[in-house]
Amino acid sequence: QVNRVETGGGLVQLGGSLRLSCAASGRRVENNVMAWFRQPPGKEREFVGSIRPGGGVTKYADSVKGRFTISRDNAENMVHLQMDTLRPEDTAAYYCAAGQASYFADLTRSSTYDLWGQGTRVTVSS
Known about the structure:
33% of the residues are buried. This protein is mainly β. The protein is built from no helices and 11 strands. Strand 5 (46-51) and strand 6 form a beta hairpin. It has strands at residues 3-7, 10-13, 18-25, 33-39, 46-51, 58-60, 68-73, 78-83, 92-99, 115-116, 120-125.
C-alpha cells in the first residue's frame, strides 16, 4: 500500500515557526517532484511550494516566499516544510504531494501530483 503521512502540525502564535514533515511508504519518491498544498477553512486548496528531484529546484507561492522553505531527504523518502514568521492567514490543513512531473508541467496544479497525504492542521493565533 502506497501512502504519505504528514506530521508536525499544531497551534502556534503569530510570528512563530513550525516544521512539517511528510514520509512516503510503499513507493520511492526520489525521482518525483514533491510539493506542499494547503486548504484554509472554507477555501479551496492552494499551492504552497514544490521541489524538484536532482538539484532540488524550488518554487513557492508569493504568499509564502521568504518565509517558508521546502527541503527533501531522499535517503529517508521524506519532504519537509519549514514555516517561519507565521501569520493567521497561514492557518490551513497542509498536504504533501508527489508526482512524476515533466520539465514543462505546471507544478502549482493539484492534477500534477498522484500521491497525497491525508493532511495536517496548522493554526496560527493572533
